Each structure stands twice: as C-alpha cells, then as structure tokens.
Amino acid sequence: MITEETLQKRIGELAAQMNIDLKGKNVVCLGILNGAFLFAADIFRKLEIPARISFVKLASYQGTKSSGTIKELIGWNEEIKGTTVVVIEDIVDTGHTLERIMAELTMREAAEIKIATAFFKPDAYKSKIPLDYVGFEIPNDFVVGYGLDYDGYGRNIPSIYTLIH
Ligand code: IMP
Ligand code: MG
What HEC string does the chain produce? Predict the structure, then answer.
C-alpha cells in the first residue's frame, strides 16, 4: 500500500516541519509502544533541535478489532510538567488511545501537547483532538508493516500492506 521509500520521504517532511515548529521549546517526544517504535526512531533521528525521548505502553487491540478498552498503561518515568510533549503514535484509528494519553498528559501538566502519527484513519476517528503531524491518511482497513502488527507479527515488514482476509 505504501512503499518504504515513500514512508521515509514523508517522515523527512514531518521532521522538517517539527524542526521549525518546535525550535526553542522544551521538547519531550513520547512514543507509544509497541507500534510506534520504528516511527519514533525514524522521526527522532531527523530532529535537529534539543529533544528528549521516552516511551509509554498503551494497548487497546486484540487481533484486528479494537476492543475499545485500554488494557495496559506502563512507563511515565519522564518529567512531563511544563514541557512540550510530542506524542508519537503508529496509527490513530478510533482515537481511544489518544484520548487516554491526552487525559494523562493534561493531568501531568504538560505545557503543550502535539500529536504525530504515521498513519491516520479519518473514517474511524471518533475524537475531536486535532492531529498536528500526520504521515498518511489511509482507508479504514487493517494494515501491517512498519511497526504495525497483526497479532504481534509483521512489524518488521518495511512497507505498509493491507491485510486481506
Ligand atoms: P485507537 O485507540 O482505536 O485509535 O487505536 C490505536 C491503536 O490500535 C494503534 O496504536 C494500533 O496499535 C492499533 N491499530 C489500529 N489500527 C490498526 C491497523 O490497521 N493495524 C495495526 N494496528 C492498528
Ligand atoms: Mg499500538
């Protein structure tokens, strides 16, 4: 669906925009595990501004259907208060995960919250939270590759594939 080359080119564009927008800010990138580990690494290595990175784990998925409930929340060892947090997500689907992370970041008194996601499914989105950096808008189909999994597998596929049942 999306080749490795196209992915990497787009990530370069997002990072370039971040380098402009986030200059002079106290930046903490917050990658959402597991899915965002590759996107977080790729975007972070292209940042040319002082920035920290940390990861939290929040999962709402089993198989190909969102359970709608968040099962896990671990991490949060970085000082968030007063910082500009850049949430780095692999994919924003319903937005449930994002809502949960936003609530937590607000509680932890982040000064500013930016959202970066490699992929976004606008037709599935139920939230009103604006997304600041979107790699690709995709149809409401299940995709694998580039960190995204199907029951734990497929994360190491460098391009994005649509799963056909
Ligand atoms: P949301 O909470 O419904 O927005 O779902 C976000 C999470 O669901 C992502 O971080 C992914 O882990 C997972 N997810 C949503 N869509 C897909 C997909 O097409 N492929 C793999 N994982 C997905
Ligand atoms: Mg995930």
Answer: CECHHHHHHHHHHHHHHHHHHCCCCCEEEEEEECCCHHHHHHHHCCCCCCEEEEEEEEECEECCEECCCCCEEECCCCCCCCCEEEEEEEEECCCHHHHHHHHHHHHCCCCEEEEEEEEECHHHCCCCCCCCEEEEECCCCCEEECCECECCECCCCCCEEECCC
